[in-house]
């Protein structure tokens, strides 16, 4: 079986590429486990100065893998915490679409850049659940009015709107044009000082994990077990509208 995450190193930057095209890089139990392990390994490797999280195909991450019952909210919380607490900066390089839990990955990263064709959506409410666990890294960073709109509508929004909302750092017609000066700058930074600077800028997010992780994991598990969610997920997999869509 091909690993769902590929690793490559170049001049101190480790690129972790989500490579699970069969489910559009959805957050299966296997992908979350492997990515969590790869992030931990990057954190421990002295030659790695920073991490870039990117993807193959036209989807960065489709969100939860609705076909994998072993993909738990607790595993997602562990993965997101691993990005936030990694003592090295992590950049999301998004040159495609992201939905649901994929936005949690983007929000957990220290920097997020996207291509102009990228599209985003908090699609949870349309399938009968809520963006619970991913709120841990997202709500401290998102503009409150933008969060209200996109959490409560499930609307698709573009890279420019995502930047204004605080989801992205920047967007560009060529995503690598936006990312390159950031990774080059990280190579010039002292590793210890960079770790301390990241500790400062992630303070609010880390407090959110300490305060709310257990309750939001429990909320997510409860919502996924409701009749409404079962119907919503079935409708999604069957490519039809759920009964509440009018």
TrEMBL record:
Alphabetical list of InterPro entries matching this protein: ClpP/crotonase-like_dom_sf, Enoyl-CoA_hydra/iso, Enoyl-CoA_hydra_C, Enoyl-CoA_Hydratase/Isomerase
Spans through the membrane: none
Pfam families linked: ECH_1
GO molecular-function term, one example from the UniProt record: catalytic activity
Family recorded in the similarity comment: Belongs to the enoyl-CoA hydratase/isomerase family.
Protein name: Enoyl-CoA hydratase family protein
Native source species: Streptomyces alkaliterrae
Lineage: Bacteria, Bacillati, Actinomycetota, Actinomycetes, Kitasatosporales
